[in-house]
Amino acid sequence: MDSSFFLTTLAAAIGLFTVLRKLRFHQEDNRKKDPSSSSPSSSLSPSIVPPPSSSRIWTHDVFPSFRGEDVRRDFLSHIQMEFERKGITPFIDNEIKRGESIGPELIRTIRGSKIAIILLSRNYASSKWCLDELVEIMKCREELGQTVMAVFYKVDPSDVKNLTGDFGKVFKKTCAGEERECIERWRQALAKVATIAGYHSDNWVNEAAMIKKIATDISDVLNNFTPSNDFDSLVGMGAHLEKLKPLLCIGSDEVRMIGIWGPPGIGKTTIARVAYNQLSNSFQLSVYMDDLKAHPTRLCSDDYSLKLQLQQQFMSQITNHKDMVVSHLGVVSNRLKDKKVLVVLDGVDRSIQLDAMAKETWWFGPGSRIIITTQDQKLLRAHGINHIYKVNFPTNDEALQIFCMHSFGQKSPKDGFEELAREVTQLAGELPLGLRVIGSYFRGMSKQEWINVLPRLRTSLDADIRSILKFSYDALDDEDKDLFLHIACFFSYEEIHKVEEYLAKKFIDVRQRLNVLAEKSLISIDWGVIRMHSLLEKLGREIVCKQSVHEPGQRQFLYEFREICELLTGDATGSKSVIGIKLDYYKIEEELDVSEKAFDGMSNLQFLQVTNGYRKTLQLTRGLNYLSHKLRLLHWSHFPMSCFPCNVNLEFLVELIMIGSKLEKLWEGTKPLRSLKWMDLSDSVNLKELPDFSTATKLEKLYLRNCWSLIKLPRLPGNTMEELDIGGCSSLVEFPSFTGNAVNLLKLNLVSFPNLVELPSYVGNATNLQNLNLSNCSHLVELPLSFGNLHKLQTLILKGCNKLENFPNNTTLEFLNDFDLAGCSSLDLGGFSSIGNVVNLQTLNLSSLPQLLEVPSFIGNATNLEDLILSNCSNLVELPLFIGNLEKLKRLRLEGCSKLEVLPTNINLESLFELNLNDCSMLKRFPEISTNIRNLYLIGTAIEQVPPSIRSWPRLDELKMSYFENLKDFPHALERITCMCLTDTEIEEVPPWVKKISRLSVFVLKGCRKLVTLPAISESVRYMDASDCNSLEILECSFHNQYLTLNFTNCFKLNQEARNLIIQNSCRYAVLPGGQVPPYFAHRATGGGPLTIKLNEKPLPKYMIFKACILLVSKVDHDGSPEENSMEVDIIYQNSNKKLYPALAEHLYIFRVEAEVTSSELLFEFKLGSNDVWEIGECGLVQDLEIP
């Protein structure tokens, strides 16, 4: 579909709407030039009275009121013929018998006509019937807003108004013997009709021309009679107009220019058109200058000539004067400075366009509005336009609706197309243009046709979309085009400060050039991250692909994984042209071994990113001969070599990322690292040593988390270091030292640093430190006095420091946002009594502190606190009343506070949406500390009453409670409970009223050892835990919810019927006792397979759903209880994984598997993640026909 055709259609839809408005305001000028028009009342003016309501039922287009003896044979017959030609339906009175007065039927006809046309002729007033018609018509004009037109046929309008001349004589004769009231009604009606702008036959030389003009004007009125509904189906338009309304400020008399700004295809033009359609009737003059960038003006020798041409085009359209000549640039201001105008300049891309048509606000009269749509924000700013509406992308739901409107003609997908529609919507990147064009392309296609088209859609652009997007690209200069390609192929969704460093050698002033792309809506910069729309990314990648269609190694960037793999593993080599390679290896199924010569020819390679999966790594069994010395970014996750090539030169390297690598050391000796700023070697568990970093004088961030084998660190550049993460480096003998002081250190992570007994004193000199994480430093006993120097701390995590005894009294927590003391069981809490200002504190974790007897008083001053965690404080008895001061508190967790008895009353924490009181076993009173709670957890409490007031809690979505015998007496509770926990080991049956809990989604029966039968339960349940119900035999329920998870571990007495019910229903996940994979699973194998499934379906579907069954067996003998090995295991299959929990022998694990169909044979093989305890004994598969 041609997108320009779409816009043209929109233009045509409202084009006729402007005709009458221009007639209304410009025929005064025309009358001075056209002698055929009468001076006081010469032109059609249907806008004098508002059009009638569109909700009325119309019987005719036109009601003509006339004196037959004057006009029937000539004028009337001719105008009726013209009506017929133009498709206008007039009322014809041949069948109505005329009497002394008009009857109800004729009155209904007048009221049911959109337009009344009064043919005032010499003898019109001789008919009482005509005069009564006129009275009724004028009444409809005033009361119903009927459009009335007047034709003065061989009679002067002043004679009609003043009742003089022959017309007056006829009228007086008719009035003879009539009642005064009747005569007065006629007089008033004639006086009013004489003032209506109309047509005077004496001013027309050619009667045929007058008739044609009248019929044309009536046709125009009818075209615009009903308010346009062209835009009623536009999704999200109401929200756009609401946001635009305060910028337009229509009630103000100021002249205001408003910009509508956004990327190509976002909907700027459509928004402007809808606004124009709704507002233009309120302005004296209006004009919509359509897509200025798509309709370039003719070539001009200089700017002045171009401005004249643009101004002439503008004035011609706004005045409806096609041949207007503009001889100087003052014409706009001269003609429009006293007129209230609405101007839309669509698609402005050059400042000269604004200078020519809307340079100054004083060019236009009070109340004027000038709307400019553009992709270039800088252009608006340069013109002094501060009222700018940035058009954002639609929400996911709105995008789906837009797509569906064009693909299905409705706002939701047709049955069976839901997933396909969502995928296509995602591929269109939620860009309205893309959604419209692609939606129209799919319209009428079968489901299989959709499936066949999708692969091409994933990798290429629609031609119409490409042409619109490329227009913006082509307008860039060469440097900006090059930067655009860098972003499209490599740096979308990258932090801007990093991109600046990567490209500093390539471009002068990278930030300024990025701002240019942002101002032209080709990228966005949000929260410091560069984002490019997916369709613009595709455009950039297509442009790069065309650099060398058949030889990928000759392109600037390589991003298509199959081409990269061929290049890295085959005989072909890359060239000096290649500057960037981005390989997502985890998407590839086959194992690949990279040639040692893979990078030999790529001497200009600057950016190399290889993203391996956790269990799939690109192999380098023969090593690497060469890496470009120009590398700026080297990101190779799970790098498979133990050391870099000996000849590597990383002098220009800015960032090194090798998370999860096999590296044991980086390189021998000292390398020049003068550009290195960021290094991340986290989870490189074999890494034993780091080289000399004395040349890394710009190093800012070093991440070594979980490098378990690392024994010692080199001296680090303290003057530049901002972030250091050595959490989990359990083999480190000593804390790293710094060259110089650590004054610039902002973040320090020492998680699980077992050898840390005390912090080095120089940590106290890191006076800019904002984030310090010491969690699980289990041998840390005290913090140094210099800790008090850390005034700027925002996050302090001491969780699990169970030997920490004291907290320095001189510590200032004024800027602290997050404070975690969970599990600091040796800490003396008395020191916290002196804590001062904590007004910025948002999260406080004091869980698992047995020494906590009462809530510290400083919390009452933490008025910005949002999360308070007091879980498992086993000696906490009550909450203080000052908790009511925490007006911003959102989450309050008290689970496991086994001695908690009292919560405050008469407080309402308005912001609180989660309250967790699980296992507060002594709490008897239902909590009523907030009526805005969304999630309320009361499992394991002693509560046995529920107040009726919870019915009026508007936000309560989740209510978890334990079963108690009288719960059935609280129907208001049964209406709100979503999780029921019934763990009474003595209960023998489930009460029947449980089924009445209509919103129940979680049902826990764990450990009900005497329960024999499980009755029917609510279909709303999504998770049921009946583990350890040792006596359970019979299931009377059915499981139809495809999202259901079932746990029947250790229910060994389940009968075969119950087992079949669990196995054969389409639940998402189920575990139950069993010693072998049942025959129900048609495809079975020992161990993890492989299993081969041959497909006979024609055509082959894109995806198929199967149910898998796994039987685990232990590698070792276990004499202990099953709980000893109740851990989870990972099952891996087809690049996916599933967690099985709890891991038990003699149990079956059933779960759903989705498989992509690429051939007529599907191959499945199940593997366990690294596991020393369990292995797969058997596996099975069956197609799940119940899931679409």
TrEMBL record:
Catalytically driven reaction(s): NAD(+) + H2O = ADP-D-ribose + nicotinamide + H(+)
Q: Enumerate the PROSITE patterns for this protein.
A: TIR (PS50104)
Give the keywords, sorted: Hydrolase, Leucine-rich repeat, NAD, Plant defense, Repeat
Top-level taxon in the UniProt lineage: Eukaryota
- Work out whether the entry's keyword set contains NAD: yes
GO function terms (MF aspect): ADP binding; NAD+ nucleosidase activity, cyclic ADP-ribose generating
The record's region (Disordered) falls at: 28-53
- Composition-biased stretches, type Low complexity, lie in 36-47
EC numbers listed for it are: 3.2.2.6
The reply to whether Heme figures as a keyword in the UniProt entry is no
A Gene Ontology biological process noted in the UniProt record is:
signal transduction
Q: Which residues form the TIR domain?
A: 58-222
Q: Which InterPro entries match?
A: Apaf_helical, C-JID, Disease_R_plants, Leu-rich_rpt_3, LRR_dom_sf, NB-ARC, P-loop_NTPase, TIR_dom
- What name has this protein been given in UniProt? ADP-ribosyl cyclase/cyclic ADP-ribose hydrolase
| The organism of origin for this protein | Raphanus sativus (Radish)
Q: What lineage is this protein's organism placed in?
A: Eukaryota, Viridiplantae, Streptophyta, Embryophyta, Tracheophyta
